[in-house]
Amino acid sequence: MEPKRIIVGVAGGIAAYKAATVVRQLTEAGHSVRVVPTESALRFVGAATFEALSGNPVHTGVWDDVHEVPHVRFGQEADLVVVAPATADLLARAVAGRADDLLTATLLTARCPVMFAPAMHTEMWFHPATVENVATLRRRGAVVLEPASGRLTGADTGAGRLPEAEEITTLAQLLLARGDALPYDLGGVKVLVSAGGTREPIDPVRFIGNRSSGKQGYAMARVLAQRGADVTLIAGHTAGLIDPAGVHVVHIGSAAQLKDAVSKHAPDAHVLVMAAAVADFRPTQVQTSKIKKSADPDAAAPTIELTRTEDVLAGAVRARADGQLPNMRAIVGFAAETGDANGDVLHHARAKLQRKGCDLLVVNAVGENRAFEVDNNDGWLLAADGAESALEHGSKTLMASRIVDAIVAFLQSGSG
């Protein structure tokens, strides 16, 4: 991505200290970042910190450097404005169109995507005034992130926690890559997403697993939630990923546990996204104690008999056909494929789509530094009606956004 001009607005909340990491990450990504805090924000983090991290001077009022007209120029020149944290007061002032400091004036002049990352106490987040303000900003085209749930100021815990800096910068990069705002178009839609790899135990120490990091599934859950969906994420083993803000996460280990979790949550879901890398086989017997290596170097290695695991995706398709999932409107599968003597990746993918019976199938060609354990991805999107489209190389979050675009189009077409 070419370097962009980003304004990071910082409102006066205790979470303002996390903005320093947001600035650092965006700067390290090669972007030109200017921090525009409120006066209250500087009571939590000093201007020198933001100046050192961004490499640009920090001002709060419209009377600084008047000859450069910063209260107009900053917004006009920006490719993206990110406000983190966005307090209840800042959201209210943005809705009212106030321009009594440099940050709110910048928001009025910005014609680029604007993203607010709220942070406040739970009671403030759910107050009717804030709810209405958030809805107004989204209706005007701004992106207002769903906050995380967790520890707040003092002993309080609940919704309203600022998403982690990595999540904010990931979504900021997505807006820059898309070139437009992230639509809030999945309100009222319940989505069940699976992610990560399963581990099938051999004994208390060993297991059969795979190289899935869970990054693509987590990206799907994150984008779906920020587009308004009510998301439940069934997470297998991942590479220490941060749970997405605004998402209910259920952690599982094996393919059998994944099947049970899908069976439990799928009846309420409108969309199922099976991005998990589910083991195809498991040991027929699980040893209760560690399998010991014989002291005799000539002794034969133990034999592990395998049996097939249940196909969770195909099972969900059958359950829908049998009327057990009355709310389900779309089922999306994922396939990691390699070519062989019998055909290329797309040949095997088309056969899998027909065999599985899902509505959409995301296909990735896997190999060294491809698909698994990397931050970028590409592939193809196949539909049950025969339509096929390429998913161009980019971040897994951008790929997730393109897949969600296809899911929305599928739902709106009346197919689902």
Automatic annotation (TrEMBL):
EC number annotated for this UniProt entry: 4.1.1.36, 6.3.2.5
Family matches, as InterPro entries: CoaB-like_sf, CoaBC, DNA/pantothenate-metab_flavo_C, Flavin_trans-like, Flavoprotein
Domain Flavoprotein: 4-168
Reaction(s) catalysed (UniProt annotation): N-[(R)-4-phosphopantothenoyl]-L-cysteine + H(+) = (R)-4'-phosphopantetheine + CO2; (R)-4'-phosphopantothenate + L-cysteine + CTP = N-[(R)-4-phosphopantothenoyl]-L-cysteine + CMP + diphosphate + H(+)
GO molecular function annotations of the record: FMN binding; metal ion binding; phosphopantothenate--cysteine ligase activity; phosphopantothenoylcysteine decarboxylase activity
Entries under Pfam families matching the protein: DFP, Flavoprotein
Cross-referenced Gene3D superfamilies: CoaB-like, Flavin prenyltransferase-like
Phosphopantothenoylcysteine decarboxylase: region residues: 1-190
Keywords, ordered alphabetically: Decarboxylase, Flavoprotein, FMN, Ligase, Lyase, Magnesium, Metal-binding, Multifunctional enzyme
Cofactor: FMN; Mg(2+)
Binding site for CTP: 280, 290, 334, 352, 356
GO annotation (BP), single: pantothenate catabolic process
Pathway: Cofactor biosynthesis; coenzyme A biosynthesis; CoA from (R)-pantothenate: step 3/5; Cofactor biosynthesis; coenzyme A biosynthesis; CoA from (R)-pantothenate: step 2/5
GO cellular component, one term: phosphopantothenoylcysteine decarboxylase complex
Stretches for region Phosphopantothenate--cysteine ligase: 191-416
Co-factor remark: Binds 1 FMN per subunit.
Residue ranges of every copy of the DNA/pantothenate metabolism flavoprotein C-terminal domain listed in the record: 187-409
HAMAP family referenced in this protein's UniProt entry, alphabetically: CoaBC
Family to which the UniProt record says this protein belongs: In the C-terminal section; belongs to the PPC synthetase family. In the N-terminal section; belongs to the HFCD (homo-oligomeric flavin containing Cys decarboxylase) superfamily.
Record's function text: Catalyzes two sequential steps in the biosynthesis of coenzyme A. In the first step cysteine is conjugated to 4'-phosphopantothenate to form 4-phosphopantothenoylcysteine. In the second step the latter compound is decarboxylated to form 4'-phosphopantotheine. Catalyzes two steps in the biosynthesis of coenzyme A. In the first step cysteine is conjugated to 4'-phosphopantothenate to form 4-phosphopantothenoylcysteine, in the latter compound is decarboxylated to form 4'-phosphopantotheine.
PANTHER family associated with the record: HOMO-OLIGOMERIC FLAVIN CONTAINING CYS DECARBOXYLASE FAMILY (PTHR14359), PHOSPHOPANTOTHENOYLCYSTEINE DECARBOXYLASE (PTHR14359:SF6)
Name used for this protein in its record: Coenzyme A biosynthesis bifunctional protein CoaBC
Lineage: Bacteria, Bacillati, Actinomycetota, Actinomycetes, Mycobacteriales
